[in-house]
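Structure first, sequence second, as always.
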């Protein structure tokens, strides 16, 4: 009888422990603007599933990316720490990895929320975009790979969805061809005398361009644009055909496989980063061109994941989070003038700068029965906050050997607190402290002080169109002494900087914020620069290839592996 009672008690405790360990589904868009989803005010872009998620949970109007650029923002999201602490903040103009065979990446010494949850018995998966490095010393060490950072399963891109991965048109060749044909017709009509050497030079130039195109098709795309499943390449070069559907199906299957055990799923969408793509079911269907098509396809994917949770009766024990790594890329405009960047709503700027449009992103959390449905909050929070929130809910202590900059969101989400735990937030432009945000206790004001701002071009524009993204230092920025001060609570568009005349406490406010910045700087340690030139450059010994035929890497095992991996 005693043995039976002990057995029943063990079963009861095991079930109670399982119930107390919620599942986590973290959905991260790429370059989605806060003005894109319907639940944030968009009237023409159809996002019914993101809107459904918002109706069932909490919508934050002041979720802030820790960086306005994808790589440092994702490093902060994964670790709960400012990217400067991990060396994931560039000191040069190149702020992201552009080669799969670069040696930089998220250091193995960093602790991700996936590592913490794996130690608590969770099954963990990352599907989609990684972009935090691959290997260090040789192509098989995979020291920066998701599997080295706490994920049991990975299916996606080790780098990012580069525009070069989707070759749509080769403009130089078109220009040369049109020039040749035009000159030939004019000469035939006798309107222009064109020396034969001109035709020869143009033909020679066309041959060079064509040769470059062929080299690009055979070398760069396969070498940099490929899909992996765990440690193996499964498609090289990557195909966009039903890519969202394939990744979504794999995410759904991961949930189904782990329905009876606690799990963490990070679904990091390739949308909305260029090159824009969508399947035939969505292409040409939106009111916003290629961008709208891709956004509506991503929304469909969100709906598929929510449906799987409902079908398996997991919704009530699953915290779902939806956000974007930074604001929309406003400078993304095609040669035909079509905008391939999204909407940042009323906010100034966008991706790669710390005006509100670059860092204020959608932030939706749903957990039926635990988080109040339909609630909106406007307190400043950060994507770094997911780290301590998830860790605490999973029963994991936070690391004690490092500073965690994120704060637990649950008191705010459950109404136990009406104030953000972030009194100060620090906005970095890559390695450089760009701005400080201060939300004083017992005050509704949210002060934001800029030490420098990017030089928008052309004059009056809302971005750095001459350079495609804004840079963080040198001739590309304007330094401010005293810093440029705004009250975001009164001026969210950041149009009216305050002065000693308009704000009597001007100098007192700035002094407090500069003191906070100085205290913050004292907590920083020198760490290896993961985006140094040596870590950024392409290294042939790190290049991954799915075949042994040198640089001609061609394979497509997606369907075969997909059928056999479950």
């Amino acid at each position: 009888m005693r043995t039976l009672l002990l057995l029943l008690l063990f079963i009861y405790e095991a079930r109670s422990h399982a119930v107390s360990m919620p599942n986590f589904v973290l959905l991260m868009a790429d370059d989605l603007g806060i003005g894109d989803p319907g639940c944030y005010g968009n009237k023409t872009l159809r996002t019914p599933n993101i809107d459904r998620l918002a109706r069932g949970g909490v919508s934050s109007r002041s979720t802030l990316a820790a960086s306005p650029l994808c790589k440092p923002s994702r490093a902060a999201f994964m670790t709960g720490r400012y990217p400067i602490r991990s060396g994931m903040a560039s000191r040069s103009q190149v702020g992201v990895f552009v080669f799969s065979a670069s040696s930089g990446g998220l250091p193995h010494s960093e602790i991700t929320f996936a590592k913490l949850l794996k130690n608590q018995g969770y099954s963990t998966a990352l599907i989609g975009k990684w972009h935090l490095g691959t290997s260090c010393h040789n192509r098989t060490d995979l020291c920066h790979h998701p599997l080295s950072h706490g994920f049991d399963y990975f299916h996606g891109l080790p780098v990012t969805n580069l525009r070069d991965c989707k070759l749509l048109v080769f403009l130089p060749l078109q220009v040369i061809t049109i020039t040749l044909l035009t000159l030939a017709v004019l000469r035939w009509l006798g309107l222009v005398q064109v020396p034969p050497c001109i035709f020869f030079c143009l033909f020679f130039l066309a041959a060079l361009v064509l040769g470059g195109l062929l080299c690009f098709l055979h070398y760069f795309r396969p070498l940099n644009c490929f899909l992996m499943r765990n440690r193996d390449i499964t498609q090289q070069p990557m195909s966009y055909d039903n890519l969202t559907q394939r990744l979504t199906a794999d995410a759904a299957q991961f949930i189904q496989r782990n329905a009876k055990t606690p799990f963490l799923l990070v679904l990091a969408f390739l949308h909305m980063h260029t090159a824009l793509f969508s399947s035939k079911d969505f292409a040409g269907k939106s009111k916003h061109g290629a961008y709208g098509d891709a956004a509506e396809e991503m929304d469909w994917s969100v709906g598929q994941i929510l449906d799987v949770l409902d079908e398996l009766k997991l919704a009530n024990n699953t915290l779902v989070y939806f956000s974007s790594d930074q604001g929309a890329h406003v400078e993304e405009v095609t040669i035909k003038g079509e905008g391939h960047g999204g909407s940042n709503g009323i906010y100034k700027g966008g991706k790669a700068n710390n005006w509100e449009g670059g860092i204020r992103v959608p932030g939706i959390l749903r957990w039926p029965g635990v988080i109040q449905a339909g609630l909106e909050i406007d307190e400043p929070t950060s994507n770094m906050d997911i780290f301590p929130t998830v860790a605490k809910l999973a029963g994991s202590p936070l690391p004690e050997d490092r500073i965690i900059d994120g704060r637990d969101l649950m008191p705010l989400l459950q109404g136990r607190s009406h104030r953000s735990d972030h009194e100060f937030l620090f906005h970095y432009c890559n390695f450089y402290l760009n701005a400080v945000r201060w939300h004083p206790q017992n005050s509704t004001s949210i002060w934001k002080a800029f030490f420098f701002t990017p030089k928008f071009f052309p004059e009056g524009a809302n971005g750095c169109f001459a350079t495609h993204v804004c840079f963080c230092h040198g001739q590309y920025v304007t330094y401010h002494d005293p810093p440029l001060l705004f009250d975001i609570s009164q001026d969210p568009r950041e149009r009216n900087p305050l002065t000693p005349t308009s704000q009597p406490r001007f100098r007192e406010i700035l002094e407090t914020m500069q003191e906070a910045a100085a205290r913050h700087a004292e907590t920083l340690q020198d760490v290896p620069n993961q985006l140094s030139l040596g870590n950024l450059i392409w290294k042939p010994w790190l290049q991954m290839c799915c075949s042994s035929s040198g640089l001609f890497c061609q394979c497509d095992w997606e369907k075969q592996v997909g059928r056999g991996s479950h």
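Margin note: Confidence is low (pLDDT under 50) at residues 5-19.
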